Amino acid sequence: MIYFIIAGVSGVTLATSIIASRKIFFELLEASVSLSNEVLSKEDERIKQKKLISALKRILISLLKLFGAVVFIAGATILPIVLYSLITNTSYESLDVSSTWFFISLSIGSVIPFLFKKKKSDDNYSEASKLLHKLILNNYNLSKLLFSFDRKFKKGEKIENKSEFVIVSGLARAGTTSLTDQLFKAGKFSSLDYSNMPFLLAPNLWKKMYNPKKAKLKERKHGDKMMFGLNTIEALEEYFFKVFLNDSFIRDSVLTKHEINEEVYDKYITYQSLIRTDNSHFYLSKNNNLILRYPSLRSLNKEFKAIFLFRKPEDHAYSLLNQHLRFSEFQTDDDFVETYMDWLGHHEFGYNQKVFSFDDKPTQINYDKNTLDYWLSVWLNYYNYLISLDDTDFILIDYQDYLSYPKEVLVYLQNKLKMEFDLSNVEPFKNNKTIDTSGCDKNLLQKTGSLYQALKQKKVSF
């Protein structure tokens, strides 16, 4: 009887050591997929060769770690039986290691560690889910392959390419999420949502395997009472540009203005057709990085609608500062939050926050990121460039107008888009918060105030 209890203890140590070594198995899987990703690369052969060698080295190191882990697991598993043999002075040959009861005891023991679940993290991403995200989103060539598969997969559905689409944009915290959500609920739009993660470039293939019908809503991390679930639309299309531009516009501290060529543009329109569920639907997206490629995108397409929002600078800067402090804390507690934001090209705030650069000169802001002045400078940098575009093709909306007159804003957009909206659930918002700017740079406040008035001269009036 005692011997079978010891066999159960061996089962416990077997499962416990496997759990303790799981990251080594994950590392080998990541290295293997990374090697496959480099094999798929169409880069210059010399560059490709260097990356292949680096990927091979990573696999060899992972294999060595795996060998060590296997030795450790085997040793941990047999240790209780070895100790039992030594204490009871029983020879190894006489030990029962093949009977049904031995395997039952070992199996029961190996199940016990898995019954003690780890506390669920606030982001609801399990280790397996995080691993899947890494395998897909870290490997651009694999994502491109999935994109080509998805194109062939949906070819029979006859969803036509459409040059008319809608992008909602602006500096983060300008109300872009709320307006995009209102548009999606009111009109005939198709858009990416959280259920498309992590197969962002293969939405139809992934939908065959994972297609949640109902999703519990909860407040997003921003703390702004915006609710989301797996079926909630989100700013996810930026991953497309990261992949097909190979992160060329992402630098250490800035996101740079860049051009879209016809090849990438054609793929982008095809990508939209993969997401659209009906030929009558318009593609809708929120993308705060649109401004970096807007001129070149507009030169290729005169028909799409771009909606830019702006907000009173001190209110906007305060909101950005608040989110920066909030997400920096989240990223300190869980580095997956920063990784997740980097995958999606969200560099608006947090440790990896980056400023928009609209020319060849580096954008320098000589204020601390934890001050209102820094975020007022970010606001000034963004909207100085936007107003300089002198483009009558985009729609400029004041956030305050959207708060006070949301129905009127949507009626205006309805007419511009030549669509019929359901406006039955549209209600005005209230925001009576007053921001203390007494400690801010007076010159900076004067500049932002003047620019704000200039933007109000160009906005849509209601």
- Shape summary: elongated
Report the CATH C-level class of the largest domain: Alpha Beta
The overall number of domains is 2
Radius of gyration: 27 Å
Secondary-structure-based class equals alpha/beta
Strand content: 5-15%
Keywords: Membrane, Transmembrane, Transmembrane helix
Protein name: Sulfotransferase family protein
InterPro entries: P-loop_NTPase
Organism: Winogradskyella vincentii
What does this protein look like?
This protein has 462 residues and is α/β, with parallel strands linked by helices. The protein has 2 domains: 2-115; 128-458, Rossmann fold (3-Layer(aba) Sandwich). Helix content is 54%, strand content 7%. It has helices at 2-20, 22-39, 45-88, 100-115, 127-137, 140-154, 176-186, 203-209, 238-244, 262-275, 294-300, 313-333, 335-343, 372-388, 399-404, 406-417, 442-458; strands at residues 165-170, 189-190, 218-219, 227-228, 254-256, 282-286, 305-310, 355-357, 394-398. The strands form 3 sheets. It has a 5-stranded parallel beta sheet, with helices on both faces. It has a two-stranded antiparallel ribbon with strand order 3-4. A hairpin with a 7-residue loop joins strand 3 (218-219) and strand 4 (227-228). The longest helix is centred in the first third of the chain and has 44 residues, at 45-88. It is elongated and about 95 Å long.
